[in-house]
Amino acid sequence: MRLVRPLWTLACVLMLTVVCFAAPVTAAEKRIALVVGNAAYAAGALATPANDAGLVAQTLQAAGFDVIGARDLDEDNLRKALRDFVDKAAASGPDTVAVLYLAGYGLQLEGENYFAPIDLRVTTAADVGLRALRISDYAKSLAALPLKARFVILDGARRSPFTVPDKPLAGGLALTEAEPGSLIAFNAAPGTVGPDEKGPYGAYAQALVEMMREGGLKPGPLFERVRLRVDEVTKGAEVPWDSNRAGDGVVFFERAADAPPAGQPEKVAALRDRPLRDLGARDAYAVCLQRDDLAGYQEFVTDYPSDALTRRVRALIAARREALVWRRTWLVGTPDAYWSYLNRYPRGPHAWDARRRLASLAAAYDPPPRFFTITYDVAPPPPEEIVYVDRPVLYLADPIYDLPPPPPPPVFFLPPPPAYLVALAPPPPVYGLYVLPSPPIVAVPAYVSAPTYVVPPPNNVIFENIHNTTVVEQINHQAIVSPTAAGIGGALAGAAIGATASRVALPAGLAARGGPNGGPTGGSLPPSSPSPGGVPSRAFGGGGPGVARLQSNPGAPVAPMPVQPGGMQRFTGQTRTDPAARPDPRTIGPRPFRQNAPAEVQRRQEMFGRRAIDRQAIGAQRQPPMQAGRQQAFEASRQRQMIQAQRAREMNLQRREMIMQRAAPMPHAPAFAGRPMMGQPHPGPAYGGRPMMGQPQPAPAFGGRPPMGQPHPAPMPAPRQAPPPPQHAGGHPPCRPGAPCH
Q1: Which of 186, 251, 432, 589 has its CB 3.0 to 4.6 Å from that of 522, i.e. a possible disulfide?
Q2: What is the distance in angstroms between the CA of the first residue and the CA of the last residue of the chain?
Q3: Whole-number Å distance between alpha carbons of 604 and 633
Q4: Using one digit for the tens of pLDDT, what is the confidence trace for 231-241?
């Protein structure tokens, strides 16, 4: 008995050890993202992509992502930013979730999707492959890395200004398949394009942000709700698409168990398993959009052939059928495959892509009498579908189709959009090259939070204050109204730092090079391009005595700001230095080389930019009195000039009068024999004066000089005379000449 008890205890300990090691342990999850918004295209500017990128980047920051982003990138900078992001993902480790969001113009060519830089110019179809960036290259690079999940979101299905004469490019984006462990999403279904949006934000970006912030949604349901919301907001003009192979292991935000319900997911799941004919046209249409597959759309057309929504669903079927046929053709890649496509769609969206591929294979455009027709997984299109795909691109809102607007989804499918998105103000204007706009921050409800296992990103103010409405309001106020250098302190000083720290960091390559022209990459500078949909530009928070410098090194630890009365409770992004602990400037040696030199350069540029903005603000305040003073000085100077000119005229008149008076003849002879008037003969002086010029001069009475022009007579030597004898006082006679004088 004594032996059994220790053995039993040992067995229990071993079982507990095995259970502890076998229990699932949630590893720390790192999150990284690259967000790009290209709007200032040389071929045609867009209104919303830069703002959309800023909005998505801000939401990803709140979800714990280490976000880098930029706007309006040319070809070189865009390629470098994407390469740097792939390198960053490779160094992040296997527990990393990577998100790539690109907003701008998307293109497709011969089965591949491309993202256009702002300096893209297309004269031939080959320019797309040479100058634009092929999405599959970076999607495959991310898929080859040992990451937890990858998201590639391309918000670029728009009506493109890039055309090729006589050989049109296919519009929209090409149907593709996500890589293993990845999700790829488009803002519009393959082969279709979205409407032209005027801002400040696009429907797809707003829907994506809304569903992320709902919390608790896995990737599949999240993008299903995005599709329903965009279809509702655009009235059917845009229907997003996604291909999900990322699994269900990622949620952007978690939703607490006691949170208010967001729809009725149990009822929606029950409806999806039922036949569409038992649901009614309205619910069946919502279920079709959630499924988003060809079989579901065909089932709707079969069950509701006379409904008003049938024509809209038929257009979606036509686009999806053609996209599937083209992808199968492109994957086979033989002349027989391209002839087979042209046999089905002689004027289809990819007809010229097929001809270009035939030319590269040295095959004729027209098929021979006999060729091997490939077998497609979908049936040939019926005649009523050809009208939608008998052109390069399908635009669902085209008036020629006259498609009826879809009904809003039922409330149990999708509640109405939240008020904060409906009334979301445009972002403040952007200062600095490449810097993304910063829309107003909206605090996340207390029942929604980032997962606890997410590694906090470095120097992320939004992540640290997602529930702090006081901090959020102060940062938003500071981002719009820039205070002067004087009078900043306390919580407002922290908000000034937060307004700067909440901005999305630039990619390392852009921050190091400082822009294409050597200019600064960030900070408060005159805007390089106006923010589409925004308001006239103003700067972010300026510096001053009460504002500490922002820590620029993203990898360095951040000291929390001291809590001040009435201030904020949680805030990071600033480091204060004790004045007593500062080194003596006389003992500081040469500055060593810094590892974070690009960040230091950016920090200095931001500081100089803030100083410039403060000087501009002070100058604007002094401008009215300075202008008044300058106007007064100008008027006084003008009056002085007028007075001087008047005096000069008066003096000239006086001189003329004096000259005229001298030239006039005298009314009577002078009383004394002086000089005659000008022009009169000289009578000769009464007392030996000189005659007038030009008159013969009399000989001088006492051997004077002859007149001018007459020969000068030689002077006669004067006779020498003996000096008079000296006189003596006292009556003595003078001495004799030659005798000594006594």
Answers
A1: 432
A2: 179
A3: 39
A4: 999 999 999 99
* pLDDT at residue 214 in the model: 92
Nearest 5°: phi and psi at 550?
-75, 135
Is residue 742 classed as helix, strand or coil in its secondary structure? coil
Mean pLDDT over each residue of the chain, to the nearest integer: 77
How is residue 101 written in tokens?
């969001």
From the number of C-beta atoms within 10 Å of its C-beta (0-12, 13-18, 19+), residue 636 rates as: exposed
Kindly state the average pLDDT of the residues 73-85: 95
Question: In one letter, which amino acid is 235?
Answer: K
Q: Hey, is 425 helix, strand or coil?
A: coil
Report d(CA 308, CA 289) in Å as an integer. Answer: 16
Give dist(CA 549, CA 610) in Å, integer: 11
Other beta carbons within 10 angstroms of residue 726's beta carbon come to 8
pLDDT in tens, 257-289: 888 887 788 888 888 888 999 999 999 999 999
CA distance linking residue 644 with residue 652, whole number of Å: 12
- Of 646 and 364, more confident: 364
Is-contact 507 70, C-beta < 8 A?
yes
Cis peptide before 261 (omega within 30 of 0): no
Instruction: Say what the pTM is.
Output: 0.69
Q: Find the helix packing angle between 203-214 and 49-62, rounded to 10°.
A: 10
Average pLDDT over residues 469-492: 61
What are 588's two structure tokens?
């500081």
DSSP secondary structure of 224-286: HHHHHHHHHHTTTS---EEEE-S-S---SSEE-TTSPP-S-HHHHHHHHTS-GGGT-HHHHHH
Q: Minimal CA–CA distance to 289: which of 233, 220, 205, 227?
A: 227
Residue 356's CB is within 10 A of a number of other CB atoms, namely 19
CA proximity to 371, closest of 345, 335, 344: 335
Cα gap 78→160, rounded to integer Å: 19
Mean pLDDT calculated for residue range 57-70: 95
Q: Are 60 and 67 in contact (CB under 8 A)?
A: yes
Q: How far is CA 687 from CA 505, 677, 684, 691, 696, in A?
A: 108, 19, 9, 11, 17
3-state secondary structure of 368: coil
Alpha carbons within 13 A on the beta-carbon side of 381: 28
Dihedral (CA of 137, 140, 144, 150) sign: positive
Identify the H or E element spanning 98. Answer: strand 96-103
Lowest mean pLDDT among 217-231, 316-330, 575-589: 575-589
Any residues with CB less than 8 A from the CB of 532 and at least 6 apart, and which? 39, 45, 46, 47, 48, 50, 51, 199, 200
**CA angle, 97 then 101 then 106, to 5°:** 140
Task: With beta carbons less than 8 A apart as the criterion, state whether 496 and 547 touch.
Answer: yes
Between CA 465 and CA 572 the distance in angstroms is: 9
Please report, for the chain, how many H helices and E strands are present, in that order. Answer: 20, 11
Locate all alpha helices (DSSP H) within 345-489, ordered by sequence.
351-360, 383-389, 419-422, 461-464, 469-480
Neighbour-count burial of 191, counting CB atoms closer than 10 A to its CB (0-12 exposed, 13-18 middle, 19+ buried): buried
Instruction: Please name every residue paired with 32 in a beta bridge, in sequence order, or none if there are none.
Output: 66, 98
Contact assessment for residue 500 and residue 61, using Cβ atoms and an 8 Å cutoff = no
Question: Looking at this protein, which amino acid is placed at residue 630?
Answer: R
Quote the CA–CA distance of 48 and 104 in Å, as a whole number.
9
Q: 335, 360, 359, 353: which is closest to 393 by C-alpha?
A: 353
pLDDT 10s digits, 432-461: 889 999 999 988 899 999 999 999 998 888
